[in-house]
Amino acid sequence: NGSPRPPALACSSRSPFGAVGVREMRHRALALAAFACACVPQAYRSLVAGLTVQDILSGDANEREKLEAAREGRDHWRYYSIMTTPDGSPAVVVHARGKAYDAIVPGMFLVTSPKEENDPRFAGAVLLVTQRNENGTEGYVLNHPVPGGAPARDAFFQRAMGETARNDRAELVDAGPVPSETIAYAYDSAAAMATDCERLKVDQGVAKLADGQRARRDDGGAASSRQERGGETERVVPGLGVRTGADSFLACLLADTQVPLKVFVGKSAWAPLQLDGEYRRGDWILCRGDAAVAMSPAGRSMWEQLFHTRQGLTLCSGVGPEAEMA
Hints:
Blueprint lengths: L9 E3 L9 H18 L2 H4 L7 H6 L1 H13 L3 E9 L5 E9 H5 L4 E5 L13 E8 L2 E6 L7 H13 L8 E5 L9 E5 H5 L2 H23 L6 H5 L3 E5 L2 E5 L3 H8 L5 E5 L2 E3 L3 H8 L2 E5 L2 H4 L5 H9 L1 H7 L10
Parallel strand pairs: 1-3, 7-11
Antiparallel strand pairs: 2-3, 4-5, 4-13, 5-6, 6-12, 8-10, 8-11, 9-10
Helix pairs in contact: 8-10, 13-14
């Protein structure tokens, strides 16, 4: 009839999107369902192994996958979703679900598998997971030093904070390929407790809370929650503080010579469930987080420590599933 042929539905093992919230994904799915039912001929409605758009959007397909895995004694199963690619065509995305998803939590190390040695971004990397939710996963590579040594480090701090680091134990780390708008850093919280920096952080937190309360009173309660959360310390690993913001606490740590400190340039991030597929494919090995390892000098030796020492065996054994998903 001369009308344009609708695009075929493609299968992808990775999400073509960045981090997308659950609500946005649901909106896209509903729009795609209307498109599929109204515009796509019956021949195009069969997607993967006899599945249809309705199978996936209703949740029936995913429920069947989960029940089948339980019957077979598997702790992983496929999870199907339908999204629109950047050019507007629909695509079926196949994710891995199961124990892998449950095991990857904030505070764990992701260690690059030896088979990924040719990946320039993550070869020999040890990464600390700091965030894991419906919007995706974020973390920081701990052991890739920024090239240039102390001069590059001092130039960075001069630009970012207007001063150089007197702390010789402060390192500048290339934490991942995703640009970050704010400075993030990790520090030895036990060492910081013995300095005046910790008291400064407490005083700063009290002042920030008071500012936030005043702002809510002034604008009727619409003050940004981001303002109040900024600079909070996350302790995803005992003995290790992770903090964001170029604040006076960071300036104090840079001036102190006793506190191990790593300042991150960039970060690592994955779209929802994207990391699960990489983990099931064997790109990453999962290990328990450890503050001493995290604050050891950046370099390949940290990666080797987790592979070739008794401590590494202790941290990385019995964590997550070992079998590949069929």
